[in-house]
Design brief:
The structure is a single chain. By secondary structure, the protein is of the alpha+beta class. Helix content is 47%, strand content 25%. The protein is built from 10 helices and 13 strands. Strands 7, 9, 10, 11, 12 and 13 form a 6-stranded mixed beta sheet that branches. A 5-stranded antiparallel beta sheet has the order 2-1-5-4-3, with helices on one face. A two-stranded antiparallel ribbon has the order 6-8. The two termini are 46 Å apart.
Length: 347
């Protein structure tokens, strides 16, 4: 038996499970009482009734009930309104707190990235120069770029990385928050090797500090994908690689394809991925066992966000943990593969 229920308090409509054609019947029970109707939706005989009290009001229609049982059901709906109100307020509070958490996270992360950007700039340009007129400062900055070209290049790369991180934060927040108007993919042909290297260049100083060699296979194929989403995925996969890769090792990147996908494979010696890590790697807030032990864990968002973007692009990410564990000090490393399948266009 299907029931259709409308209930509210005062002018506030709390629930509405009606169909558009239900309005044909509802005008018959705008005051307390019950009526028999032939449902305009499913063409069966139904009882329809209205009940009001200090708790609220309810309009219910159902089939297969005697008049007595129907009145009991109607009364039960009205009596349950206070509990439903409390439940609704609890849900609203929970949703509000969840949204505040998301907002707090993006504000915190953007503030952090902005602080890093300011630090990079003030490491290259004396802070007091920012107080002067830009035109008067340009000659000194130009001369410094000439005499400290390496430092200037390093600063630009660091700022590019920070800017990308801030852009990704805003992008993912906007995508998750505005589900009623989801991100529309714009797939075009790109040189996938160039896009990957664009992201890699932002991390080169960090890999250099760990004496990690980047070995990217030559590949000149143009692949159809959404630039923003795939760049986002590359960014977080490379960020994770930089954080967890073994120092003095090699990060290999290979390109291939099969009948359905263009494939990008990241192969590296990095923190060993245990079975429990693999089971939870896409869970929001989860960090791997070794990352927690070594206090190198972040907020546990990288792979969670990558998973969202992989699904958005209808792509697939396969993680193959290495079976052989190699210890360096107290840290367990293994040969791990992260294999991204970007679906080919069918049209």
């Amino acid at each position: 038996m299907e029931k259709r229920v409308i209930y509210g308090v005062g002018e506030e409509l709390l629930n509405n499970l009606k169909y558009p054609d239900c309005d044909i019947c509802l005008h018959q029970v705008n005051s307390e009482g019950i009526s028999n109707v032939v449902c305009p939706v499913d063409k069966v005989n139904r009882r329809i009734g209205c009940k009001k009290s200090s708790k609220g009001y309810a309009q219910v229609c159902a089939e297969g009930l005697t008049a007595r049982n129907f009145r009991t059901e109607l009364q039960n709906v009205v009596d349950s309104i206070p509990q439903l109100m409390r439940f609704r307020k609890e849900i609203e509070k929970s949703v509000h707190e969840a949204e505040l958490q998301k907002m707090d996270r993006i504000i915190h992360n953007i503030k952090t990235q902005n602080a890093h950007a300011i630090q990079e700039l003030t490491n290259f340009i004396e802070p007091e120069q920012f107080a002067y007129d830009i035109k008067s400062v340009i000659p000194g900055v130009r001369e410094k770029i000439k005499t400290k070209a390496h430092h200037a290049a390093y600063t630009i790369l660091r700022l590019a990385k920070i800017n990308t991180a801030m852009s990704e934060e805003i992008f993912i927040y906007d995508h998750i928050t505005h589900k009623e108007s989801p991100y529309q993919l714009e797939k075009r042909k790109y040189d996938i090797h160039d896009v990957l290297m664009l992201v890699f260049h932002e991390f080169m100083p960090d890999f250099s500090n760990k004496q990690v060699t980047i070995d990217v296979m030559d590949y000149d194929a143009r692949v159809v994908f959404d630039f923003t989403v795939i760049r986002f995925i590359f960014y977080h996969l490379i960020a994770n690689a930089e954080k967890y890769i073994k120092p003095n090792s090699v990060l290999h990147v290979m390109f291939s394809e099969d009948a359905d996908s263009n494939i990008v494979t990241f192969l590296m010696t990095s923190y060993h991925i245990y079975s429990e890590d693999l089971d939870q790697i896409y869970n929001e807030g989860y960090s791997g066992k070794i990352a927690v032990e070594q206090k190198t864990a972040g907020q546990g968002l990288g792979m969670y966000l990558v998973n969202i973007m992989v699904k958005l692009h209808n792509a697939k990410l396969i993680i193959k943990p290495g079976e052989e564990i190699r210890k360096t000090g107290k840290i367990s490393f293994s040969e791990n593969e992260f294999i991204l399948h970007i679906p080919k266009q069918t049209s």
